[in-house]
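It is worth pausing here to work through a concrete case rather than discussing structure prediction in the abstract. The textbook approach is simple: state the sequence, then state the predicted structure, then interpret. We follow exactly that order.
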Amino acid sequence: MSSIVNYEHESGIPVVDFGPFRDGTRKQEVADAILRSFKEVGFVYLINHGVPQEKMDGIIGWAKRLFALPMETKMLAPHPPIGTHHRGYSAPGLEKVIQNEFDPDKIVQSRKTTPDAKENFESGKENDKVMPNIWLPDGILPGFKEACLDYFWTCYEVELNIFRALALGFHINEDFFTEYHSAADNQLRMLHYFSVPVKDVEAGLAPRIGAHSDFGTITMLLQDHAGGLEVEDPYNPGKFKAATPIPGSLVINAGDFLMRWSNDTIRSTIHRVRAPKHMYGTDCMTPERYSIPYFCSPNYSAIIDSVPGTWSEAVPKKYEPIDSAEYRMKRLAMSYM
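Step two, the predicted structure:
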């Protein structure tokens, strides 16, 4: 029987074949591998995850077409000046990625003096009453809206399967996490990192995305071939390893909310985007980079308490129940302060 896990990637992040979970042949084995990776590293590469290759190639292509538009055209779908409505186009320097303590009531910010060398576009489900989508006017980029929505809902089906696997890993009801994610209160982001001098990235003069953790439950990342994503070694704080692209894969990482939900049994690992490792110390320009993260969060209406089995008299709960909407709005707002 072939192994469903490959531990040989240079990042130290396991590569898990999700196919045997999807077809039902080795569900528990896959579930155990994913949860183990989340506990040890906070990240996992998934292959055979359920997003067709043509859709992954297609959404990267749409991102390239979008960001190639003139600035004045992209600004016809402007991101509001506050982070609590996280939709539309963000020009370079608008978003300020910061790292803060996990507790949203204890904000310790590390704000950069130089804006990130990137631009992005946010969308979600249609008819979202909390965060309505902000699209370009009709006729400017025909097919773009439809492609974003199609990819959003494809990712949502994969998300539900990943949560089913996590539940099996915890040996609880398979639908435990999916019931808290039934509303698809998620966010699809298109990111474009500009080509900048490698030496400026290394010196902090042209940061791409600084070291941070995600605040939701999981993030499903599609990255192009350019490279640059780095993940902190959980056993050597401050040391980062390159999470180089694996063709056809999605990079899945746990966020702060899932860490809290699991009573800290799952890691929410710090990561960043720099220059590709093989270019360090050169006078080259970084390649442009396109990536598509899909950020997953519980329903706005949910109250989240610790996952069954992650606490006991010997290992008490570390956190009080938390309101999903309140927590999320606080974290979003901090990106646009």
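Step three, interpretation. Confidence is low (pLDDT under 50) at residues 99-112. The domain at 5-336 is CATH 2.60.120.330 (Jelly Rolls).
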